[in-house]
Structure formats: structure tokens, C-alpha cells
Design brief:
This protein is an alpha+beta fold and 80 residues long. It has one domain. It contains one helix and five strands. The chain has one helix spanning 51-76, and strands spanning 3-7, 10-13, 24-29, 32-38, 41-47. The chain has a five-stranded antiparallel beta sheet. A hairpin with a 2-residue loop joins β3 and β4 (32-38).
């Protein structure tokens, strides 16, 4: 499961099996787990995060969206 980005206590990562799904990232850290779609950025699911933490994480995902999509495309061997 490749780590795409670390931001503070959060690790944004993907599973290799995610290559068959639309662009998204998983986030863990601070005893929570979340999944964010990248096109457009939206919360798919979460457990253990407060609304405030989800807002913080979403800002990170939005700010790094282009680089996350590029990293996923590189790992999955596809064009964006």
C-alpha cells in the first residue's frame, strides 16, 4: 500500500487494487480512517474523525489534489 503523502499526523495512501476505481485516497492517523474521492474532492467515508479533523484533511487533499492524481497515475501506469 503505497504512501502518497504525509501531512502532519496524517498518511495519505492507496491500495494497489484501487487502480481499478476512480481516483481517490485513503487517510489514516489520529485514530481515524477516511476515503476521499479526488474528482471532485469529496468525502466518501470515514470513521474516528471529528468534523474539524475532516475539514483539515479535506484542505490537505484539495491542496495536493493534482500531485496525488499524478502519483496515482504513475503507480497505476495510466494517463490522467
Amino acid at each position: 500500500m503505497p504512501t502518497l503523502l504525509r501531512a502532519g499526523p496524517y498518511r495519505l495512501f492507496m491500495f494497489m487494487s484501487d487502480c481499478v476505481e476512480p481516483h481517490h485516497v485513503h487517510v489514516d492517523g489520529n485514530d481515524g480512517l477516511a476515503k476521499f474521492w479526488l474528482r471532485p474532492v469529496s468525502l466518501a467515508e470515514h470513521v474516528g474523525y471529528s468534523p474539524r479533523e475532516l475539514h483539515r484533511i479535506r484542505r490537505v487533499v484539495e491542496g495536493e489534489r493534482a500531485s496525488l492524481i499524478e502519483a496515482i497515475d504513475t503507480i497505476c501506469g495510466r494517463a490522467s
